[in-house]
Amino acid sequence: MLIDVPVFIDDADMLRVQEAIDAFLARGAQSLLILAAEDSGQNLAGWNSLLRALPVPVFGGVFPRVLFAGQAHACGVLIVALSCRAEVCIVADPDGVASAREALHEALQALRTARTVMLWVDGLSAHIETLISEVYDVLGAGPAFLGGGAGSTRLCAEPCLFSARGVTGGAQIVGLPVALGLGVRHGWEPVAGPFLVSSVSGCRIQGLDFRPALEVYREEVRRLSGQMVDPANFFSTARAFPLGLERMDGSFIVRDPVRAEGDSVVCIGEVPAQSALHILHGRPAALMKASEGACQDALDSGVQPAAALLVDCLSRALHLDAVHEGQAAIITQFLSRSCGAPVPVFGVLSLGEIASEGAGCLEFHNKTFVLGLIPHAGTQPDPT
Amino acid sequence: MQIGTSLDAAQMLRTFLLALTRRLQLRAAQVWWLGDAGVERHAYPSRSISLWQEDPEREAWCEAALGSQYAGSVAHGSLRALRISAFAVLFLEEAGVVCSPGALAVLEALMPRLAFACQACLDHRRSRALLDLTRLQNSELQEARERAEAAWRSKSEFLAAISHEMRTPLNSVLGFSELLRLELAGNEMEEYANSIYSSGRHLLAMFNDLLDLAKLDARRLVLHPEDIDLRQLCEDVWAPYGAEAQRKQIEGELRIEAGLPQRIVVDPVRLRQIINNLLGNALKFTHRGRVSLSVSRADGMLAFAVSDSGPGIPAEAHGRIFERFSQAGHGSARNAEGTGLGLAIARELAEEMGGFILLESTVGQGSVFTLVLPPVAPGLLED
Fold first, then answer.
1. Containing domain of residue A151, as a range?
2. What PANTHER family does the record tag this protein with (chain A) (predicted)?
3. Of A309, A302, A311, A318, which Cα lies nearest the Cα of A359?
């Protein structure tokens, strides 16, 4: 599936990017995944002219960080050449999906035979989960799903997705004819709760246990850490204490509280009304163990990996800080040891992760580690 | 888990199945519902419907689960069925995670609520279908009514136009035949001229009636109320009929009750037309005895009663004589000239003026036709 090891260009030089792409095209690349770190995604005019002139399908985007060779880069471009042809479906306005449901369903018909579906979305879109539920509704549980939220640490609305149209916002749903092996874990553990979500509007939690949500959250974080949460330090304090939506099997899907508004706590990702919510905390050892667990889950799928595509959460990386820098090395070692050969690991730090955990339904995650093992070319039969 | 968030079954079940799929990390969840039109399937993801259909063994198991009457839940490989009601089953397709007994117990406890929600949707759908059918029927009736009214209006407009056009040449016929009568007075041809003249008068009366009816039908008849002297109008109308009664040697009388308003506001042309018609009929059918016009107050209304001692009208004909082209007698019994339109016009004019016409009659004793109008004080016009 991969044409050689991905190429990383450590600056924003568009000529070097073009040269690398030309080299891949000369070697028969059928599609391109381009992941640019936020400092290298600024030259919109340059990217637009490059992307629009490409003769093969292209997808990817600008992310807060690009992971390559064991490091998280704020500047640089990673080019991944694929030997298979990708089917790219572009959703210009994910926030309008509810009103354009039939058109989206029609467009997704082309992806019904895909064995892997990547979803790259503008991480600041308000209705990512609506889009995700519609995609899963049409495509079902067959393909492996992997993706995440693009954008930058500036957290401002700006074009961040790469396609043949240039740099755009919205979302892109990409179908690939080979199945990736998936591992999805987070490692966060409950330390307080459960609290009933008594009042919520989308991603804005207004009430917990019939009290103002911020008041409850502030009390608990103060009890757990001794720190007082206020609007000024909310993001830095809260990133260590995310919220967890309890599933019926006792596991959690993580929601990242990003800011306080009045008495409400605003998260990345929707929170269902009447659900049970816990406050989570992540011990570095538990988070790192979750990364290894995700690698093992991906390997258990039976894929012989040629490389590993990692979608990790920016805020998880910020919480782990220095420990996170060692994560890539640990994963690389783990995969290489398990496979008996070096497995290149690359990917992004994203604004929210998208994956189907444990072969279950497709969901939007926060602070979660998603690993996709890309198989060696020819190890899977072509369904076509 | 939110249940019953909508009365639309597809929307309600999608919300429930989506939440369920996520909370249990399922690959898919479906509700099979034995409805009026066979098995109805709701699923999240909806793709699972076609994927399941590709597996005959799975389909057969699901159909058997829907048909059997087990309680609680049964499992088959990665599939699990929970009975919602006698006619509906919830199917779960598990992924790697198998539903824990605790989660299953919670789900089973939710089933009666889901059954209620499904029943509410079904009831809503049926009442909605009934409502839609009623609306459709009403709309079809309305369309048919509008078509009929349009056709009636077209006919009336045509009639109004043609009657008007025919009256113009007829006036020439009448004018010249009257001249001919004068020219041929005493001549043996005088009788012919008289015949042309009387036939012309009859035709003109008929056209006038048709024109009035057409105007009434086409809603084109406009009343022109004026402030008039009541007594003066009655005396003017009565005068020729009083003379005719004298000529026929029958008793004639005009009675105007004391205390009536001196002036009223009414369309004098149309009021004269109605009274003329009633008096004309009375004199036409009365050959001995009496004919009278009396004006009085009746229950706060103004009553113009025309009574005669003519042959009277049988009770069964009381309703019919106000219909168009209808007279009290039929066939050979018909003994009076006329179009049969006069009373119909008189009644419709009376109704246009806010009043009505009453009939009291006994065969062999005579008839009383009473035009009842609301008395309008002249001061009202100035407002």
1. 7-185+286-375
2. BLR0328 PROTEIN (PTHR40252:SF2)
3. A302
